[in-house]
């Protein structure tokens, strides 16, 4: 499932390429026909993410809510203006949590992913860019405009020069401002939305009043927004915290440190497009980590392998039907 950093990146792409433009909206798949008819001919006013949910405002106080769920993704095509809010002017991107390192943006991983370039310096390119859990450049497959419909597209937003296709979301619906406010009110704090100090207090209070395992609470979007399976495992390891510890028993200073860690990790994820959770890598180690997913995490996807810190075999178990990776020694 796409985690918070991906949804923030998608919202920024919508913001940069659609705000102020009138869209042609359609539902080639047919499942969102009525909603698309409402959006058709309206102008985009705003796009924002809160946790794993994205909200796009149109004219007449009409909102689109999208939750990608497990399989949803956006494909962007056309003369895409890439987001530059976190890129340097010369096209190179520094690392938020890497000291003294400046890494070139042209890094492809072993799955063909170039997430640094996908959110780099501003440039007009005729490209297709897939935005979901991993941001994948699909290449310049065709100059046909509008681009052909590929697969089951729930919603297509089209302007004269940019196209966004939504596939496989869990939720895609038109809402009123009141309905949007009600959804957001049920979500836990997001480090990139509102005051981080207020968010920290909400997070700590929400965890401390629950007699539920911290490994479950981190995935509860009413407690904290945006954390998924990867960030959960990595944050628990970085905090040296047993995932089965009841929330009410976790030390307050540990919870505050975890919130601040989430602030950093989410910002880094939005910047790089990768869930980079290892700190203080030298330039070569960082390049390897960006190129190979197995080299950028402490415990995630490392079941049966030795812990990078103590050598103990990493454990894999199920928690709420999701895979949980942790070190039984470092997180005892």
Describe the structure in your own words.
It is built from eight helices and 14 strands. By secondary structure, it is α+β, with helices and mostly antiparallel strands. The chain has two domains: 4-83 and 122-182, MutM-like, N-terminal (N-terminal domain of MutM-like DNA repair proteins, Alpha-Beta Barrel); 189-326, Helicase, Ruva Protein, domain 3 (Orthogonal Bundle). The strands form four sheets. A six-stranded antiparallel sheet has the order 1-10-11-5-8-9. A four-stranded antiparallel sheet has the order 2-3-4-12, sandwiched between helices. It has a two-stranded antiparallel sheet with strand order 6-7. Helix 6 (229-238) packs across helix 7. The chain is globular and about 60 Å long. The chain starts with a helix and ends in a 6-residue tail after the last strand. Residues 84-126 and 133-141 have low confidence and may be disordered. One of its GO terms (biological process) is base-excision repair. Pfam families: Fapy_DNA_glyco (PF01149), H2TH (PF06831), zf-FPG_IleRS (PF06827). InterPro entries: FPG_cat, FPG_N, H2TH_FPG, Ribosomal_uS13-like_H2TH, Znf_DNA_glyclase/AP_lyase, Znf_FPG/IleRS.
The CATH architecture of the largest domain can be given as Alpha-Beta Barrel
Q: Fraction of residues in helices?
A: 25-40%
Number of domains: 2
Q: Order of strands side by side in the largest beta sheet? A: 1-10-11-5-8-9
- Return the CATH topology of the largest domain: N-terminal domain of MutM-like DNA repair proteins
Helix vs. strand class: alpha+beta
The largest pleated sheet is described as: 6 strands, antiparallel
In terms of DSSP E residues, the strand content is 15-25%
Specify the overall morphology.
globular
- Give average pLDDT, whole number: 85
CATH superfamily of the largest domain: MutM-like, N-terminal
Helix/strand order, N-terminal first: HEHEEEEEEEEEEEHHHHHHEE
Beta strand count: 14
CATH class of the largest domain: Alpha Beta
